[in-house]
Amino acid sequence: MLTTVFFDLDATLVDFGPVAWRATVRAVCDGLVSAAPGLDPAVLADAYVTRYVARARAAGPGAPHPRGPIPSARTAWLGLWRQALTECRHPELAETAVDAYIERRRIDYALYTDVPGSLEQLRADGRTIGVITNGPGDAQRAKIDATGLARYLDLVVISGEVETAKPGREIFELALERAGAAAVAACHVGDSLATDVAGARAAGLGAAIWLDRTGATPAAGTGAYRIDSLRALPGLLRDLDDG
Which residues form the signal peptide (predicted)? Predict the structure, then answer.
């Protein structure tokens, strides 16, 4: 029986995609205009987005996890806002911008509609539920707190707090240890073949489950079970238990 279910966080449980994020950035920029007459919020938003995307790509799947503690999200975002605002000749607004950005992100985080019912059913089935996520601890915990996700979870493992990341097997092994579960009795659910599926398979978990919300890509050759909604997960796990 698969007694333990681990989940990725972003784009699996928490919905904060590119459209919502860009709207958040623009709202922050619009809010700075009153403090800086002549500031063009569209230019500032483009400057921030360009820097953020470049940094995200450099740290994306396949990039080595940095040795030692990673900076908090606030520290990283502050640096990006300072760069963007310096380009727009208002570096003095960097602290104001990052605080507004953090608050606006918290407001805009949301759970996908299929999350609450699915997690409630997993708990009713007696399964342990955990999150394994890459990112700074402050950013990832803010998502969990803002969405009320914590009430469904037994454990949370964040790469920025443990200094190892998906797809490395070490972060999965740490989660298994905290859950008190054997690898063959656990599965991992996530939207990324590169980090979630590859990591779960490398760690020898009982199942790797790929959440493909577009429903457009076949799972053949991925080594994963594919679902297009978390509503399908409780039934899939029961089938695997019986199989």
Answer: none
Contact yes or no for 234/125 (Cβ under 8 A) = yes
Q: How far is CA 172 from CA 17, 133, 154, 194, in A?
A: 25, 10, 15, 15
Residues 28-40 pLDDT 10s: 999 999 999 899 9
Provide the whole-model pTM: 0.93
DSSP-assigned beta bridge partners for residue 155: 130
Find, among 229, 243, 211, 202, the residue nearest to 117 by Cα.
Answer: 229
pLDDT tier at 64, thresholds 50, 70, 90: low
Q: Are 60 and 53 in contact (CB under 8 A)?
A: no
How would you write 2-65 as a 3-class SS string?
CCEEEECCECCCEECCHHHHHHHHHHHHHHHHHHCCCCCHHHHHHHHHHHHHHHHHHCCCCCCC
The residues facing 15 across adjacent strands are 110
DSSP structure string for 130-179: EEEE-S-HHHHHHHHHHHTGGGG-SEEEEHHHHT--TTSHHHHHHHHHHH
> Which amino acid does the sequence have at 188?
H
Structure tokens at 166: 């998906």
Task: Show the tokens assigned to 81.
Answer: 């806002």
What gap in Å lies between CA 56 and CA 164, rounded to an integer? Answer: 17
Which residues make Cβ contacts (< 8 Å) with residue 190, sequence separation at least 6?
A: 7, 8, 12, 196, 197, 200, 209, 210, 211
Three-state DSSP class for residue 183: helix
Q: What is residue 147's DSSP assignment?
A: H
Rounded Cα gap, residues 224 and 147, in angstroms: 28
Give the pair of three-digit tokens for residue 57. 């790509």
Would you state the pLDDT for residue 103?
97
